[in-house]
Amino acid sequence: MKKIAPSILSADFSRLGEEVRAVEKAGADVIHVDVMDGHFVPNITIGPIVVTGLRKLTSLPLDVHLMIEEPGRYIEAFAQAGATWITIHAEVCRHLRQMVKKIRQLNVRPGVVLNPATPLRRLSTVLDEIDLVLLMSVNPGFGGQAFIPEVLKKVEQLRKTIDRNRYPVEIEVDGGIKLENIGEVSKAGGDIFVLGTGIFKTASYRETIRKLRREIEK
């Protein structure tokens, strides 16, 4: 099933609990949590304590995207906080397969993230070990950026590889996704669609998610 994953990076943090409950009620499938350390990306967001709070608020899967330089130091904390998925960037992991196995051992679903310029071959040693590949369709660090269209070809190539080898891996796409392009991303092979401003800056979350699903299903 194709999934909609609102990113709380674009939510109103003064009423985060209400925002999360609102998108869940509106039909979201996953809550996407962007963790930034001010080093790997030029922004700082949240830590495990917020994930602990979110876990108490919703029964939806928590998709924790670690945009940090040393993910190995914090994986256990986010696992204990209640993460469903933890995705780590291939760009910062020298021993990627080892890190993926560590996430799995903590009873969390592991995923690997690739920035727009990072080639798919970085996944070659882990595609049989992970549940999720997150393809960034913007350069990570800030919300509200425009979708990089060249990433569509990357999604298509990865879809073919996964299907050919029958890997039980979902493709998630994050960055600049909106009503006008989500259909293309779905057709290319995306399974999970992360939207921040594309949901949280709209007047009706329910209506927005309904329209997004309609585009996905075309």
Describe this structure in words.
The protein is an alpha/beta fold. It has one domain: TIM Barrel (Alpha-Beta Barrel), CATH 3.20.20.70. It has eight helices and eight strands; from the N terminus they run βαβαβαβαββαβαβαα. α2 (48-57) runs parallel beside α3 (75-81) and α6 packs across α8 (205-217). The mean pLDDT is 95.
Task: Looking at this protein, list some descriptive labels.
218 residues, TIM Barrel, eight-stranded parallel sheet, 8 helices, 8 strands
Write the layout of secondary structure elements.
Elements: E1 3-6, H1 16-25, E2 31-36, H2 48-57, E3 62-67, H3 75-81, E4 85-89, H4 96-105, E5 109-114, E6 132-136, H5 151-165, E7 170-174, H6 182-188, E8 192-195, H7 197-200, H8 205-217
Helix pairs in contact: 2-3, 6-8
Largest sheet geometry: 8 strands, parallel
Shape: globular
Q: How much strand?
A: 15-25%
Tell me the radius of gyration.
16 Å
Summed over residues and divided by their number, the pLDDT gives a mean of 95
Unreliable spans are none
Structural class label: alpha/beta
Enumerate how many helices there are, as a single number: 8
| Assembly category | single chain
CATH class: Alpha Beta
Domain module count: 1
CATH topology-level fold name: TIM Barrel
Q: Going across the major beta sheet, what is the strand order?
A: 1-8-7-6-5-4-3-2
Order of helices and strands: EHEHEHEHEEHEHEHH
CATH architecture: Alpha-Beta Barrel
CATH H-level homologous superfamily name: Aldolase class I
